[in-house]
Structure formats: structure tokens, C-alpha cells
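Deliverable D4.2, example record:
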Amino acid sequence: MATSKPIFHTPIDFLHCMATSSNSTTTSKPIVHTPNDPSYYTTLNATIQNPRFSSPSSPKPFAIVTPVHVSQVQAVVYCSKIHGVQIRTRSGGHDYEGLSYVSNNNVPFVVIDMTNLSSVSVDVERKSAWVQAGATLGELYYRIAERSENLGFPAGACHTVGVGGHFSGGGYGFLSRKHGLAADNIVDAVIIDAQGRILDRKSMGEDLFWAIRGGGAASFGIVIAWKLQLVDVPSTVTVFDVKRNFEHDTTKKLVYWWQSRADKVDEDLNIFLSFRTASSIDKEGNEKIVLEASFQATFHGGVDKLLQLMEKEFPELGLQRQECTEMSWVESFVYHNEFRDGESLDVLLSRKPNFHIGSFKAKSDYVEEPIPEDALEGMLGMLYEEAVGRGWIALYPSGGKLNEISESSIPFPHRAGNLYNVRYYVDWDEEAGNITASKIHMSWIRKLYDYMTPYVSKNPRATYFNFRDLDIGMDNIEGDTTSTFNNIGQASIWGIKYFKNNFYKLVHVKTRVDPTNFFTDEQSIPPLLSH
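Output generated by the structure prediction step:
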């Protein structure tokens, strides 16, 4: 059966449908925002985390729905199917290519903003929690800490990231080397499928439950909530965030050694390494640009044990006791989000980042062998071509629990054999009507990516789904969708890079649960087509 594109009626038809289709027994009504409403742009821009997609020329939804009840999400699915509307679902708005609130397919679309569906329920006795898709990581960590200082969850560090998308793409963070990804620790979920049904793990089936944990849930439905298996954390963790000048020989030696050791050290230690340029004043009082190497870490234990471990594994860093701070596990996320002036845990409940975010573009790779020293210096030297501090390269180590889980356990396949993930990033401040600046920065990061080709994974050149990158390929939704080859062949260009051979299982799951490709975007899993 070939997919056919529904005929879009009018916004009024859709809105009328929404007004009459909710099955909720509550008196609450869907909060629908259209461009004529004063709240529309406030709601739309509230969690656009990449200003590259907030310009007047960016495609806009003809409506934004902010449901307060699950039945209102069902109503959006029902009305969208009838009236030929595509759906974008937004939890925290951190999709790197804006696909949770932008469509580049020249079709009418509606955004479901899940912010109001953000409850967190923690069961300390069973070491589990239910979290709705609209909650942020900060909210999740805060609510866990309210109930227990010795329970945590292995997910990302950025407190404003929404759990809906983060978990469905994998979810890497400071605990991942010890406990795996967020998706590795999900034990149940509630999802609305293309038929508008509310399904849990038992009713959705194990294949769909497998697919939404690392395969991008937006291809299969709308996740309402996740059930998490919480993990034990110590009463005290130790953090540090130290910077060293890369031009010093000891730092170069340290960075090269980090490549071979960061994935193999004690699983209680996870050290992120990043590089960017910075302004510095030399001894003569002259300003110069230097390349900083930043070592940011959480050790799940006390400072004494950490210092012993660092002296053994990374003595070149010369880590000092005064550079380390002991705190609770949840306080470490306050620290890593740049709140370092005695702020309370309440800052984790904010949906606003604690630092300026310009328009940005990011790309990523997996590294299987240490990058040679000359190539490493060549990579980092390219940071000088960008404005000071605006280009950024970050390395995230693998190893530990990540290596113990098979590539096919969930769709996320980047397991044993990888030393680390590298993310390339550049941001800039948009100027109205100036598209040249954007092109310059995009060109720079693509040149950097090309330069790295010989030094990263091959066949496929793998990348992390949560570091979304449309450069590696897109679905041709407006093109020929009547051919299985065009459909699957085109999607496999990018799909294998994200999921390796798991891509083909994802296609089969998609074919079973959404054969008409209702849930679709520029990088969504396509169904097999039959004639």
C-alpha cells in the first residue's frame, strides 16, 4: 500500500475539530494558540533553544496546542489525520535542527507543546519513577532529590533539556559509564500511536517499546510518560571544572593520554574534555588568543579518593584539592549548569539556560582509535578560524557499562569499540537580514567535519541521534514515496549513521505500527511500502 498525502482543509476545520474531539472527562479544554492570538509567539518562542529557527523566515505552525490532559493529545492526532496536518511534538525544544517545532516540508503543521504534562512521581521503595514527557531533566533530578539523596538517574547534564526527546534518542550523561544511557534504564512507557490509542509497554508490544528507547520516538507516536529504573548514588560526589592552556606540552600530552584512558578508568569517574579559544593577557600586558582545554568531571565519591585516582591516571593535569568541590549528586547539576554562586536547587526548575545561546550548528562523530597528535592539533587549530569562544569541540568518553550492553539491546548502537564521542559546535548572533554570517559559520563547521573524516568511525561514519544533523541526509517527503527503494534507500543514508543495522529493525517496527507514515519529519523512520 503506497502512502498518500492527506488533503489539508483549513485551519478553521482543524480548530473546529479540536474543539469537539476531546474525550477528556475534565473541564479543562485544550489551550490552542494561533497566529492571531497574543500568546502565539510567546508560546512558540518560549523553548526554542536554537535561535537559528526563530527568524521571521522560519516555517511556523498554524497552531500550537498546549495540552493539560492526555485526551487532548489524542484529539490532536485524530484531527491531524482527518485534516492532513503534520505534528511536531516539543518537550524542551533542544532538537539541534529544530524539528520539534519547525517543518521544512512545505506542509501545514501543528506543534504539541508538552510543557503542561510534566509531573514526576518517585517511588523510593521500588527505586522507580514515572515522569511525563514535558518535564525537564532539572525537574526530574529535583523531584528525585526531594524524596531521596541516594537515588539518581543516568541522563544528561543540561537542566533545560526535555525528557521526552532526550530519553527517546538515548540520553548520555555523567552516570552513563557506570549505569548506561537513560534509555537503558527505562522499564515502561505510555505512548499515543497513529490510531490515537494510549498504549503502555504491555499493550504496545516489545518491538515498539524497543524502538522508542533510542530510535527517536517521534517516528512512532507521542510519548506521554516514561517509567524509570532509578540507580543508587552516594551521599557525596566530587566535581571539578579546570582549564589548562593547550599550547603547553604537558597539556598536549594529557589530552593525547585522555583519548586512550578516559573510557577505561574507574566507572565512578567521568571526565568530559572540551576545547575553545579564549582571550588572555600575557606578561607584557598584551591581549592574545589562547586555546583552552577544559576538564569537567563528576566523581561519585569523596575528594580524597578522587585525588588518588587522578594522580594515578592523569598526573599531568596536576589536579589540586582546592579545584575540587564535594556536594550532593543533585547539586552537581547546579554546578555543571554554571550556577556557582550559592544558588539553591530551585534553579533546576527553570526552563531558561544560565548562559547565552546564539544560533548554532552542531555535528558529531565516534572515535575508535586515538587521533594522531598532528591531526589533533590540526583539528583544534581550526578553532582559531572562528570568533573567540564561539567554536567548541567536546569529547565524551565511552566505556564501562556502555560497553557491556549489546549494540542491538536498544536502537542506540554505539557501544564497545568506541573511545569517545566528539561534538563539533559553533554559535553566532543572528543579525536581521544577514544570511551571510550564518553561511560562514555553517561552512566552517562543515569544513571541520570534512577534515576529521580519516580519524573517526567508518562504514558507517557513526553519529549520535540526539546531536541531530540534517547534513547527513533527509527524507524526501515531498518526493516519490511510492517506491520502497526511494523510501528506505534514502532514509538509510542517515539512518545507518545513527542506528547502524538497528535501522532496518526500526523500519519493520514502523511498518507495523504506522504503515501510512503519519508520524513523519525530515529524519523520521519510514515504513516499508507494498503495492
